[in-house]
Design a protein that fits this description.
The chain has 478 residues and is mainly α. Helix content is 87%, strand content 0%. The protein has one domain. The longest helix is centred in the first third of the chain and has 58 residues. The radius of gyration is 22 Å and the shape is globular.
Length: 478
Amino acid sequence: METSSSLMKNTTIVFIGTIVRMFCSFVLVLIVTRTLGPEGTGVYSVVLSLFWLFQKIATMGLEPICIREIAKNHSRAGSLVANSTVIGIIFSVIMSGCMWGFTYIATYPGIVRVSAIVMSGTLVFTTGNLFFQAMFIGLERTELGVSGIVAENLIRVGAGAALLVSGYSIFSVFIVFLCSSALRLGINLYFTIKFVDGFRWSYSKEESRFLFKTMPVFAGSQIFNAFSGNITVIILSLLLGMDAVGYYSVAMQLVGFIRLALQSYKSAIQPVAARIYDKSVRELRKFTKKSLTYLFLFIIPVCFGGVMLSDKIVLLLFSEEFLYSAYLLRYLIFLSCVYGVSMVLSVILIGSNNQKIDFWGIVLNMSVRIGVVIVLVPRIQVWGAVVAVLVSATAGAFYRYSYIRRHFFRIPFGTIMYKTVFAAGLMSVCTYALRSIHVAAAVSVSAAVYLALVLAMKIITPGQIPGVRLLLNRKRAS
């Protein structure tokens, strides 16, 4: 009961921060697409892809190490964060120079180059923020990081949108990114000092040696994962230009919002999985089945509904200029399901100290993606990128599961998801019938139908829904 309560609390809090980040990112992308068109959207996407690529390299895989070790021993929080931050800052400065240099080697337009200079400064602040967030997750005090996330993203969307609407270039938005990231770092420091009991910022040679010894596999995983996630946009920008990147990025942006929600779920279950593995593999299997059940309950209806309403969604949120993105979205939406499964499998591998296997899954993912992109994009344009991300993500997930099945346990995917697929299938029939009405109304009715089916089929009970359970607990208490 304590584990379920902790999981639900941390998932809910991280999800709140994720919802804010998703909403703010969505609004900002919406303003970018409407004010700058496909080419400007392409510039925005390329700069952010370069930023996230080099930022992931800068942290050198220290985030999951901090989460795992702090979850096991809270007293190490201060030394782990201090030592990780020192290492991270050194690498972030190096990666800042690399990011700036790459834009010149690749002969990107001037706006991409100057924007990369500003985002190289943002990279340093973001690295520090990620280590504090890792500490909050490891301590299972995720509520401490929410304020910084909310402040950072509200400033980004508010100031960024105001500047774009006023006629300023995309460069001004990246300046806002720099300032908001610095503010979040200050907020994280304040909450750490005030609310984390016994926290002491202490540099330790022993802790640094431990991190340097442990991080190669994690760093490799993170670096290859970063390449896997961003290399497609970079290759598209070099082979097809900014317009193609704009169409692809709009579709992937919608999938990315879903992935952010999945990332928050992964962050919440990661420390719990590490703790459960130390007790029993049998308990870890139960936990895995429960985690996948909740995952499929969310992601499968989203995929089915996305196929039915992709064109309506793109036209509502963006404009007719991006209608081509709707056709891409019908296929890319299923990437979110593969992402979700991979994240749960990755948590199992890392929690059981099999991060090397997770690393090779990422290497496989990236290798397949780059190969397919290079082969297919010159032949079938943007559709080559769609095929590449779907095939490569599936290959990585299959590799991870193959290891887990051989060495730990079999996961009955069919048993876990068949009722959910059936309920989502019935929901999609309803969604298709409602295509003629407004998208918001169609989504609302479809969601209500799906929830009714899920409860009727007893996939979950009313008490397992967070809001309903809270009301039931209050009623019992009174």
